[in-house]
Specification:
The chain contains 14 helices and 9 strands. It has about 350 residues and is α+β, with helices and mostly antiparallel strands. The strands form 3 sheets. A 4-stranded antiparallel beta sheet has the order 4-5-3-6, sandwiched between helices. Strands 7-8-9 form a 3-stranded antiparallel beta sheet. Strands 1-2 form a two-stranded antiparallel ribbon. It is globular.
């Protein structure tokens, strides 16, 4: 296992802090707090550098707010100067861990993402089902062979154990000052249980989430030797042609997760048959086609109808609103649905 030393000075370098600022600013350049920071950019970055070098840096209090989209989530937003520090850390550590992470971890990584994960699922599905071979006495052309262990971690972000995380990081990062800085960020989160949890909404939380569960990735890939495994944050799937093998995997995974002080979600971790379709990352995946998740479709249809009911349709505004959803919908069999929506919009505009 390779050890990395003397990283702290790279994190503290002005060049790295300047790059971190540019990344933190991306798509937020018009916000007042970003403009305020940029007005005295050099002074602000030099002040951060001074605090880092003197080990006096302290993150500011997180701003807490709630979003419902549709699931209720508590988000903790960092002060902008602290976001610069988060990017500065990830700038240096991410290239190291990219060499360590398994291939089939897809969240918060360059050239990965949910669509790549879904495509990988389709690839594994074809292999497990022997190219979509139907089960005996299949009632539809979608009832293909094979099974999936579909699981996620119970209250994952709230359950990350700081001591375990720091121990994992310390195996590769042999720089006490880097560990000190990470601890400042972890301790800044006012969690329900001291020493537990990372806040949703922080770049470092996303990165640390992958570092933490990379332990699970290695266990599943190297100890269990599962060939068809995919993880996206704390959601993961293992595909196999034999249900009994997946049942054994599940028992061993539950036991292993105790060493990480986390556990499977009891209501969201089960073995399912491919013949019934699998819900994964917003899609319902069947043998021969892929649909949008019904709850996502209902939510968008409701918002779309409300948009049309407003009366005054601004072409640019509605096109921008539809663009993101179409980007998601086009990965499923939704050609007729998208065509109908465009037709409805056009009919409103041309009235």
């Amino acid at each position: 296992m390779k050890a990395y030393r003397n990283l702290y000075q790279r994190i503290c370098s002005y060049k790295n802090l300047e790059l971190a600022f540019k990344k933190a600013k991306k798509n937020k350049g018009n916000l007042p707090y970003v403009i305020e920071f940029e007005v005295n950019l050099k002074e602000n970055l030099l002040q951060l550098q001074k605090e880092l070098k003197s080990l006096t840096y302290k993150p500011r209090k997180l701003k807490r707010f709630i979003i419902r989209d549709p699931k209720t989530r508590i988000i903790h937003s960092s002060n902008f100067r602290d976001r610069v520090i988060h990017h500065a850390i990830v700038n240096i550590l991410e290239p190291i861990y990219e060499k360590i992470f398994v291939y089939d971890s897809y969240a918060s990584r360059i050239n990965k993402g949910s669509h790549k994960a879904v495509e990988r699922f389709e690839e594994f599905k074809r292999k497990v089902s022997e190219n979509n071979l139907l089960v005996r006495v299949a009632k539809t052309r979608n009832q293909i062979k094979g099974y999936v262990l579909k699981a996620d971690i119970k209250k994952y972000f709230d359950s990350v154990d700081h001591t375990v995380l720091l121990d994992i990081i310390s195996r590769n990062i042999k720089d006490n000052k880097v560990i000190w800085l990470i601890k400042q960020i972890l301790d800044n989160f006012d969690a329900k249980i001291k020493g537990k949890g990372v806040p949703l909404g922080n770049l470092t939380s996303q990165f640390f989430a992958n570092v933490y569960l990379n332990e699970l990735d290695y266990f599943i890939k190297h100890n269990l030797k599962a060939k068809y495994y995919i993880r996206y944050v704390d959601d993961f799937v293992i595909l196999h042609e034999d249900k009994e093998i997946l049942e054994k995997y599940k028992i061993k995974i539950e036991k292993y997760l105790k060493t990480l002080k986390i556990e499977l979600h009891p209501d969201k971790s089960d073995i399912k048959s491919l013949k019934n379709g699998i819900t994964f990352l917003g899609y319902r995946i069947y043998g021969k086609h892929r649909l949008l998740r019904k709850s996502n479709l209902r939510k968008f249809q409701r918002e779309f109808d409300e948009m049309l009911a407003m009366g005054v349709i601004v072409p640019f505004t509605i096109a921008k609103s539809l663009q993101g959803w179409f980007g998601y919908a086009q990965w499923a069999n939704t050609y007729k649905l998208r065509k109908r929506m465009v037709k409805e919009v056009n009919s409103k505009i041309l009235k």
